[in-house]
Amino acid sequence: MTTAPETEQPRPTERQRTFSWADPAAIAAAGAGLSGADFFAAISDGRIPPPPVMQTLDFDGVSFGEGHATFRLTPREFHYNPLGTVHGGVFATLLDSACGCAVHTMLPAGVFYTSLDLSVKFLRPVTVGTGLITAEGTVVHLGRRTALAEGRITDAAGKVYVTATSSCLLLRPDQAAE
After folding, report:
1. Beta-bridge mates of residue 135
2. pTM for the full model?
3. pLDDT for 9-31, tens place per residue?
């Protein structure tokens, strides 16, 4: 058996990233007595730091209103999958955040939520060259036990790259004994 002579491959340039985050338990405690609208107002004006996932993936909360949440992300190499495009999990996280936070904006103090499901449709790839992308979530239905939200990721020109729907379970104090 013959083998090809070993050739030395060029070493890729190593890149590094460092980031910091606030204590997530302190963030949760600070928001525990607030309505969803008041919680996001406190995050927006800096009284409560953003959740760690925002620093981890390097995205920003742009606006929060009743039934709406908007986040922005500038794609970077550290978001890439092995194929050289932004990993689908980044989009899923952005849309889970946008949909869930849109629901959260409509909840009174003491009522919380958790995602039941997230259905994501990837329509086209995103790269660093795509530029700034925006994830918007909107509440479609808010019931007593569940909520439904939809989201989309667009570029600066409004081209849609990813869509999602999310169902959330609402956790109300009066339902705890059920």
Report:
1. 71, 153
2. 0.90
3. 667 789 999 999 999 999 999 99
